[in-house]
Every structure is written in structure tokens, then in C-alpha cells.
Specification:
Blueprint: E1 2-13, E2 18-30, E3 35-40, H1 46-54, E4 61-68, E5 72-75, H2 81-90, E6 92-96, H3 107-116, H4 122-135, H5 152-164, E7 170-174, H6 182-197, E8 201-205, H7 209-212, E9 218-222, E10 228-231
Parallel strand pairs: 3-8, 3-9, 6-7, 7-8
Antiparallel strand pairs: 1-2, 1-4, 2-10, 4-5
Helix pairs in contact: 3-4, 3-5
Bound molecules: adenosine-5'-triphosphate.
Adenosine-5'-triphosphate (ATP) is lined by residues 11, 20, 22, 40, 42-48, 226.
Pfam families: ABC_tran
Domain ABC transporter: 2-232
InterPro entries: AAA+_ATPase, ABC_transporter-like_ATP-bd, ABC_transpr_LolD-like, P-loop_NTPase
């Protein structure tokens, strides 16, 4: 489903006249329906990998082959912005501990919009939105509020609710349980297990190794490779 080959991503820090190799020569494969956990020290480049797959970062070299349902086998490093937007809408989900949302859109509307993007009817979207918000224990008084005002844990639960309702083919999880209590973590785990049973392929970063126990089919360990590459 995903084949990462010799991926390298550098960042130029202009005010320091330096270039950092955030990731260097990274290769791995994830089969359809499997869960790959990525572990490694802080700053070793875990998020950079996920952001490169999601098309947020453009790697310097290497390839990320993704077997898309609608576009066929596609290299996400050279895909056009239009193709990336299409894949984000219909096939690839990304959940991080940070929430970026449309202004003046309530939590409930955000989830309904996500479900409508899958082609569901309005009725179905409203029913499913209520179910998933209840599943993640998002207090009903918050449903019609703007998420900018939510606590960290509330934002996270909304973020993951929005992603799972789309039943993505590939779901990227960047510490989605970072500030959650144990009960909420369990709900996230149940949702991940359900998606996996439905055939979703997952790549996830969790500092909480206990959480990953029994969930991942494979673990990729990052070595810290960030070096000052050159004086720019
Ligand atoms: N947009 C950016 N601009 C400049 N440097 C960046 C950028 N994003 C990441 N880096 C640097 O690249 C390196 C890898 O960062 P990344 O966030 O991928 O690490 P990580 O393993 O996910 O870390 P953590 O576990 O602390 O979240 C770090 O040294 C970071 O400072």
C-alpha cells in the first residue's frame, strides 16, 4: 500500500545559514490493512515522515509510492497539488495533536462535513456525527461551539472523530493520544482497531508504548540523524 524509498528531507534554516537533514535514506513498506508504528527519540524525524507522506513537506530525494484506489500507483513526492488534495479528501487521513479548522464552523458541522465528503446523505451524516461525538464523549454543550475554544483533549477527540468517520484507506496518526486520559485513549484504540478490521492501513507515532502494545504489526525505529549538513 505504501512503499517509502530512500527518503531524504532537509530544512534550510536561513537565519543560521545551515541545512538540517531531518531524515536521511529512510525506506520501509506497509502492506494493505497493516499498522506500522514509528518510534524514536524526539527530533529523530518521525513527524517529518508522516508530513512527507501527507504532502505537507516536499522531500529532497527518494520516493513514496502509494497504491491509490482512484489514481493507481502514485509517487506522493512528485504528485501534483491537485492529486494531493484529491487523496486527502477521499483516501488519506491525518490526525495530529493539533487541530486546524475552518473559522466559524462548529464541531458538529465539521464532523458532518467530513461524512458528507464520503458521499453519505445528509440524514446519514447527521446521525453518524452524533454517534461519533458521543463515542468520543464530547460534551453535547460543545457540539455547537467553535473548536478554537476547546481544551487540548477536546480538540484531539474532535480531530480523531473527524478522521475516522471518513474511513480512510490510509490513516496517519501523529501522537493522537498525547493529552488524553486513559478512558479517551481506550476509545481511540477501539476506533483504530475498528478501522483496521475494515481494511484501513495505518502508520502511527505514539510515545506511549503501552498504547501501541498489540496494535502494531510492525515497528520502524528512527535513528536520530539530524546533522548540520553544510554552511548554506
Ligand atoms: N518546518 C521545519 N523547519 C525547520 N526544521 C524542522 C521543521 N520541521 C522539523 N524540523 C526539524 O527536523 C527535525 C525532525 O523533526 P520532527 O518533528 O520530524 O521530529 P520528531 O521525531 O517527530 O520529534 P518529536 O518526537 O519531538 O515530535 C527536528 O530537528 C526539527 O527541529
Amino acid at each position: 500500500m505504501i512503499q517509502v524509498e530512500h527518503l531524504q528531507k532537509d530544512f534550510t534554516i536561513h537565519h543560521l545559514n545551515k541545512t538540517l537533514h531531518a531524515i536521511n535514506d529512510i525506506s520501509f513498506t506497509v502492506e494493505k490493512g497493516k499498522f506500522l508504528g514509528i518510534v524514536g527519540k524526539s527530533g529523530s524525524g518521525k513527524s517529518t515522515i508522516l508530513k512527507s507522506i501527507y504532502g505537507t513537506y516536499l522531500p529532497q530525494s527518494g520516493a513514496i509510492y502509494y497504491d491509490s484506489e482512484s489514481l493507481g500507483r502514485i509517487n506522493l513526492v512528485t504528485a501534483s497539488p491537485r492529486e494531493i488534495v484529491h487523496l486527502r479528501k477521499y483516501e488519506i487521513g491525518y490526525v495530529s495533536q493539533f487541530l486546524s479548522v475552518m473559522p466559524r464552523t462548529t464541531a458538529y458541522e465539521l464532523v458532518v462535513q467530513s461524512i458528507l465528503e464520503t458521499g453519505a446523505s445528509k440524514n446519514m451524516a447527521h446521525n453518524e456525527a452524533a454517534l461519533i461525538l458521543k463515542h468520543f464523549d464530547l460534551d453535547e454543550t460543545l457540539w455547537n461551539n467553535y473548536p478554537n475554544y476547546f481544551s487540548g483533549g477536546e480538540k484531539l477527540r474532535l480531530n480523531i472523530a473527524r478522521a475516522v468517520v471518513k474511513k480512510p484507506r490510509l490513516l496517519l496518526l501523529d501522537e493522537p493520544t498525547a493529552s488524553l486520559d486513559n478512558a479517551s485513549k481506550l476509545k481511540v484504540r477501539q476506533s483504530i482497531e475498528k478501522l483496521k478490521a475494515q481494511g484501513t492501513t495505518l502508520i502511527g507515532i505514539f510515545h506511549d508504548l503501552e498504547f501501541m502494545e498489540g496494535l502494531c504489526d510492525d515497528v520502524f525505529t528512527m535513528q536520530k540523524v539530524v546533522v548540520n549538513a553544510n554552511e548554506a
